[in-house]
Specification:
heterodimer; A: 2 domains; three-stranded antiparallel sheet; 3 strands; 4% strand; globular; B: 266 residues; mainly alpha; 39% helix
Chain lengths: 283, 266
């Protein structure tokens, strides 16, 4: 057994220790706010907790309302000023380090990862490697079509058409009559697929993820791999939830990267200062 | 400069909390809508509020105020409770009429408002339904094009389609529940419950008793009438409704167009 393999084995289980807590925090926060929204509508809301609707807390709402905002100065139905603010914050985050909103904040992504843990137990090494590469590559661009369709249809109809199929809204409102059947169906399918594919919604269909992914080639902090210290153990490849071949790249600017940092030397990579988020070049 | 996972975690919170805090300080953070609909960008209605932008969170009071529709008309059109109809939110409609096999909801209010106010409106991919009371109010107070008349009459919630029977012969007052059966309409030539025909010869109002001669007397040209009915003027003493129905056509489809001729007079 080589030193490299030993190191890789030794650190294989190491993960990004901060991210799960950050994700759990935002998941619980959104869940509580959503429940409080329902309670407030029934006149039983908790006063010290926000009772905002989920639409008000979704940055993608800001994206889809842009056309109406610039043409008539108003927002699409159900979208609020806060959505625009969150959209701007999401873009600032993306300019700095890519889709950190997806990798660290988005409760829908977190939910899929949690189901994925069960999938990993069931399918072991086959988990997240079951979709044929040929199909997988093509399907990864589907989310851009979804994004274009949603933005176009929203501008045309002046209504939040995406709410009818939004699994994120369905997840946090499944008890409410506001949820469309389409949303519940998409949520159910996403949950099932999450047992075999990591973050299927993010990979193939999320329109906001598509927009965020566009920032990866231009993000200020680059995810870099130091080829001189890399031992080619493949730990980074295995850790990547989005199946990016990190070990074959020097700078990871793939549109699917969600900046989760699972591949970095702070997590899966067994060699110090080899895969890192850096502003500036590797030493 | 390296960004570690710990720095990233801090960065996430700093950007979100800082960004939201800054927007609150600048007055830009709001999780509630201001309830100001979009306006038409072009056309004759440019600058007017667009009913297509009415949202489920609006109350009927807000719709009444924004679109200048008497709340009493909205109350009738959507069978709202008499106590405080202003406070009813549009999104509550779907719950009120959940037992119907079609949806009476926010889209119904949008359509009603647009037609009531004579504003441009495009029905979406899904059919939009109205209660019979709403249709009756529109026919009474709005200037509907023949196409809209056909649309609203064929989209009355709770009606079982009755072939060969014109929807225009329905009277909403006689149908308080969503399950309706056609009954003669007031002024249709058939005596009402009191036995007194509700007929007036008010100029410009085409009723079930109006003759072609009446229209000529109002100053409308023969050519204009012929253009609407699509053929040469028959015996001018004929009751318009009788002539139209004898052709197997729907009176209400022509009524609005014929009334439109009067309004177009100089």
């Amino acid at each position: 057994m080589t030193i490299a393999t030993k190191l890789a084995k030794k650190r294989r289980s190491k993960t990004n220790i901060y991210r799960p807590y950050v994700q759990a925090f935002f998941f619980v926060l959104i869940a509580f706010i959503s429940i409080n929204h329902s309670l407030a509508e029934a006149g039983k809301g908790i006063s010290w907790l926000s009772s905002a609707s989920l639409h008000a807390l979704c940055p993608f709402g800001g994206v889809v309302t842009l056309y109406q905002f610039f043409t008539s100065g108003t927002l699409v139905q159900k979208v609020h000023d806060s959505s625009l603010v969150l959209m701007v914050i999401g873009f600032v985050m993306a300019i700095i380090a890519g889709p950190i909103f997806c990798g660290w904040v988005c409760p829908m992504g977190t939910f899929q990862e949690w189901i994925g843990k069960l999938g990993k137990r069931i399918f072991g090494k086959r988990y997240n490697h079951m979709v044929p590469e040929k199909w997988d590559k093509r399907l990864r661009y589907l989310r851009y079509l979804v994004a274009i369709w949603v933005v176009y249809m929203t501008a045309r109809s002046l209504s939040l058409v995406f709410a009818n199929v939004d699994p994120y809204f369905a997840l946090f409102n499944f008890w409410s009559s506001e949820v469309a059947l389409g949303g519940l169906v998409v949520l159910g399918v996403t949950m099932l697929l999450s047992l075999v594919v990591e973050r299927p919604w993010c990979k193939y269909a999320c329109p906001y993820g598509a927009v965020q992914g566009l920032f990866n080639p231009i993000r200020l902090a680059k995810l870099r791999r130091n080829n001189e210290t890399c031992i080619q153990c493949g730990a980074c490849d295995r850790a990547c939830p989005m199946n990016i071949q990190v070990s074959k790249l020097d700078v990871i600017s793939n549109h699917q990267c969600i900046s989760c940092m699972e591949c970095t030397s702070d997590a899966a990579c067994p060699i110090k200062e080899t895969v890192e988020f850096r502003i500036g070049k590797v030493k | 400069m390296k960004i570690s996972t710990r720095v990233m975690a801090i960065l996430v919170f700093a950007l979100l909390v800082g960004g939201i805090g800054l927007s609150i300080a600048l007055g830009a953070w709001s999780t509630k809508n201001e309830k100001i609909p979009a306006t038409y960008a072009e056309g004759e209605a440019a600058g007017e509020y667009n009913p297509a932008d009415i949202r489920g969170s609006y109350t009927f009071g807000e719709v009444s105020s924004l679109f200048e529709i008497p709340i009493e008309d909205l109350r009738k059109a959507f069978r709202l409770p008499g106590g405080n109809p202003e406070a009813v939110a549009l999104k509550e409609l779907e719950g009120l009429y959940g037992d119907l096999n079609v949806e009476i909801g926010t889209s119904s209010v949008r359509l009603f408002t647009a037609l009531y106010r004579g504003l441009p409106y495009t029905v979406g991919t899904e059919d939009t339904w109205l209660l019979p009371e709403a249709v009756a109010l529109l026919r009474e107070k709005a200037q509907l094009s023949p196409e809209w008349v056909v649309y609203v009459e064929s989209h009355m919630a709770g009606l079982t389609p009755v072939p060969q029977v014109s929807m225009s012969t329905l009277t909403p007052e006689s149908n308080p529940t969503p399950t309706m059966t056609p009954t003669p309409r007031k002024g249709s030539g058939t005596p009402s419950a009191s036995g007194t025909p509700d007929h007036t010869k008010e100029p410009g109002k085409v009723t079930g008793q109006t003759t072609f001669q009446d229209m000529l007397d109002w100053g409308i040209s023969q050519e204009a009438i012929e253009q609407v009915i699509g053929e040469s003027l028959p015996d001018v003493g004929l009751v318009i409704k009788d002539w139209i129905t004898s052709k197997g056509l729907t009176f209400s489809s022509y009524k609005t167009a014929l009334e439109g001729l009067y309004t177009q007079l100089p």
